[in-house]
Design goal:
Chain lengths: 234, 223
Amino acid sequence: MKAVKYLSIILITIVIIAGLCIPIVPEPKTLFEFPIIPGLEDKARNIFFHVPVAWTAVLGFLMALFYGFKYLQTRDLEYDIKSVSSAGIGMMFCLLATVTGSIWAKFNWGSFWNWDPRETSIFILLMIYGAYFALRSALGSDEVRARLSAVYAILAGLTAPFFIFIMPRIVGGLHPGAKGDTSGSTPITQLHMPINMRFVFFTGLIGFSLFFIWLLNIRIRAARVEYQLSITEH
Amino acid sequence: MNSIASIRAMVAKDVKSELRTRYALNALLMFVVTSVATIVFALRGDEPNIEILSGMFWVVIFFTAMAGLSRIFVSEEERGTTLTLQLVASPSVVYFGKLIFNSGLTLLLSSAVTLLYVVVFPTFVIKSMSIFACTVILGSLGFASAATLIAAIISKANTKGTLYPVLSFPILIPLLMTVMKLTSSSLEGNLFTAVLGEFQILVSYVLVLTAGSHLLFDHVWKD
């Protein structure tokens, strides 16, 4: 886990320095210059932070779902600890994605919130996280809580395809990949980035994912200790 | 007894106990009247446009369903009959019995809301009956398919009433967005073929949620 920790720190540092310091010029000549993207200009730098954070928010939910599924299979509370830890960190990243996206939307599209399909999706993801924790706090014993919250996470996961693949097709949107986008409306947006931006972008994705894994590891260890303490107290 | 007969017996039992007490039915019909009346008072004689009307139509159905659909499992917990039910019937039978009852209840509620809307709002004129009927039927099935499993989940929780809409809302959003759009296009009088894509979404939603809930129900039902 030490390697993951240091690697994530190094990668995110690279992204922060490269993402914020590399100048944006009309005609880039070297690798240390980004081109101007019309309509985005300096605001394009947010893509190195907003997209990886949003990706990590989804990753957190998928991991919570996966461990919930494992819990239902094995009925081993260790998996529930992993599931709830993942959901907790995922929710933090979901809030970060909402805030960074909202600020970006204010300066690019004119208002903090536009109910674009992807904004709606991240709002729903926040609601799911909120409902998940509200459900957990309303359930008494450890086993029931683990079982029912795993079921709820899986049920919520079943609706994800409707948000990712179907809704952006029927509702017009502002994000790339939405209905009416000239560059094509596919769930996985084609990247129109030059090689150096792409490098920083993917460094960000990997860096934030490793950061998530490191945080998850700490959270799981802390939750294990909490669980042991709660057993010895009773 | 084969499973079809068991499911039929399950539904008959719920209908009978509902007709005996009229707990849900009376309260829910009053709930519908109350919420439509609130909307009428809020509008103060204004004639809202079609989009707002069709949105409000499903808002009323959503909150009425959230007030009523959880009864199906909560009442079993309250009467202490859950264990008996676990003994006499398999989880699949219980799930489909409750699903059919809830679908029927939602359909009844949507019909009541439709009737009130047609009477109260002069602009609520259904121009395309086929779209409207399919929307209400598939929408009610969709509501029931998602809400039945969540009802089973919250019957084990401490704060049943408040938690139910909180848990259901994120799951129901794709359905709500689709049926609101379909309702407004039925009021505009669009052709059935023009909204075929939306109906595909509705049908796939109902199938995915019913199949998923059925598979997950075992874990909720068995302690």
